[in-house]
Structure formats: C-alpha cells, structure tokens
Amino acid sequence: MAGSSHGHTPAAWTGVSIAFIGFCISGAFMVLANPLGVWVGLALILLGLVVGLAMSAAGLGMPKESDAVRQARIDAGQMQTR
C-alpha cells in the first residue's frame, strides 16, 4: 500500500479524526460508567463517517480510477513479479 495514496485525502483524514475523537470520548465515558457520554461518543463516530462520505462526494476524496489506469497498474504489477 505504500505505493498508493490510499487514504491520503482531506475526506479520509477528517472522517477518521472525528471518529477517533468519538472513540476516545466513548471509551473514557465507558470507564467512568456514564452511558450518556458513551452514546455521545458513538454519535461522533457516526458523524465522522457521514462527514467523510460527504467530503468524498464533494470531490475531496480519491478520484475514481479509469479502466485504462487500472489495467496499466495490473500490468506493471505483473511485470515486477516476473
């Protein structure tokens, strides 16, 4: 995966950052035995998903790969294994 830019987009970073904050909040309130805080953290995790998908739909995610580019990538990978 090091050769690709998988996940290196503003949409991915924003969605994962929001979800990580929600995970931390939910975990902290789980230890504190506060159910309301756990649900708030879980809501933030879902918000991260929604924000990431919305940003991706707005053009801030990875562009879709064309068939020609996909085939060239497959051919190059096969040439390296020979």
Report on this structure:
The chain has one domain (10-80). The two termini are 20 Å apart. It has helices at 10-31, 35-60, 67-80. The chain is mostly helical and 82 residues long. It contains three helices and no strands. The mean pLDDT is 87.
Largest sheet report: none
Number of alpha- plus pi-helical segments: 3
Structural class: mainly alpha
CA radius of gyration is: 18 Å
Q: What proportion of the residues form beta strands (DSSP E)?
A: under 5%
In total, the number of strands is 0
Order of helices and strands: HHH
Number of domains: 1
Question: How is the topology of this model organized?
Answer:
Elements: H1 10-31, H2 35-60, H3 67-80
Helix pairs in contact: 1-2
Keywords:
single chain, 82 residues, mainly alpha, 3 helices, 0% strand, elongated
Compose a concise summary of this entry.
With 82 residues, this protein is mainly α.
